[in-house]
Amino acid sequence: CNFVVRRLFVHILDGIWLMAILILQGTVLNYYIINHYKNSVTPYFLFVADFLCVATFVGTLAASYHYLKKVSGEDCEDGFCFKPRIRLTPTSRLGVMPLSYASWLFYVMILVTKVAVIFESGLIESLSAKNHFGPQLLKVTIACASFVFLLLVEGHNWTKRGTPRYSYVTSVCAKTGIEIFDSVAFLSILMEGPKNLSEPFKDVILILSAINFFLPSVKLYQLSFPDFSIHKMSLPITIIYLFLHMSCIDIPFLTVRLYLWLAYRENASMFLMKNILSILLTLRCMYPELVEFKHEYLNNKSIVAAKYAKPRTFEEIALSGRKSAEDV
To answer: Keywords assigned by UniProt (predicted)?
Structure first.
């Protein structure tokens, strides 16, 4: 099928870009750490972690191509070839492509470790905006995680443009990219904020930023399910994600920024308004989800009936990826 050949070409390009970004990001962060610990050879072992990370992503993209090629068919509609495989057995709770979120978790653990070393070692105080390897390059390098997420998701997405699932995947990539930029802006408080912040307060900023890097794995977990088997779990997972994001990211980020604005007269970040908007949107989205959760799981309806019920929310339709979902 010509579609598979085209997708192979795009898949290879995505893999090349992904490896290039991983190598560039890892090398720059390693340079900061190695330059700070000049008399130690331990930081050089970070290159081993980077190599394992690149190998993991290569294996992930190879596995995704192998799976997506198997489920693609010759029957084309409007120039698009994709024929979902009819499953005789239920999809595993781990999903059909668990390497997607597993590789992201592995990557984030390495990234967060490097960021923690950089910000906890006193390295930040020695950086100068006049140098090439200054705070600006550090922020840009960390923000490259958004491109890693984008390429990872696109490496698992062969859905047709205009379908609900394609729109959902695109929105997830956009929202996650903004969240990563928000985390980088939040970390910049430790670079450009007040110098007399207490150590516990700095640790809180670092921990909250790290949590925001881990949360996208929940969305990757949802996207690893290509059929209606996710519907039984999609509703509670969505509620958990929204609650965690609001309680662990938006509200704490907003609180810290308001505190710095009012107590230290720091310039208010525009991401402060993003946090407010995100809280309002989350509350509006959570209410109908909680009502549906109450009807399906807390009332006397059976779990079996909920499993085979048709999806009624955009997210459930988008996650299905089945043609029949478009008729709902």
So the answer is: Membrane, Transmembrane, Transmembrane helix
| DSSP 8-class letter at 99 | H
**How far does the chain reach from its first CA to its final CA, in angstroms?**
30
- CA-CA-CA-CA dihedral for 178, 179, 180, 183, to nearest 10: 120
What is the model's pLDDT at position 140?
94
Q: 48: part of which helix (H) or strand (E)? A: helix 46-71
Local confidence band at 80 (pLDDT 50, 70, 90 cut-offs)? very low
Q: What is the distance between the alpha carbons of residues 248 and 151, in angstroms, rounded to a whole number? A: 26
Percent of the chain clearing pLDDT 90 (strictly above): 36
Residue 121's domain comprises: 1-73+96-231
Residue that has been written with the tokens 């509200």 in this structure: 251
In a domain, 127, yes or no: yes
Q: Is 84 domain-assigned?
A: no
Q: Locate the DSSP E strands across 122-249.
A: none
Q: How far apart are CA 134 and CA 128, in angstroms?
A: 5
DSSP 8-class letter at 134: S
**Within a domain: residue 236?**
no
Q: For 30-42, what is each residue's pLDDT tens digit?
A: 999 998 888 888 8
Q: Check if the beta carbon of residue 229 is closer than 8 Å to that of residue 90.
A: yes
**Nearest CA to 75 among 153, 163, 161, 160?**
160
122: left (phi over 0), alpha (psi -120 to 50) or beta: left
If one counts the domains in the chain, the total is 1
Residue 310 placed within a domain: no
* 316/273 Cα distance (integer angstroms): 29
- Alpha-carbon gap, residue 259 to 47, rounded angstroms: 39
User: What pTM did the predictor assign?
Assistant: 0.81
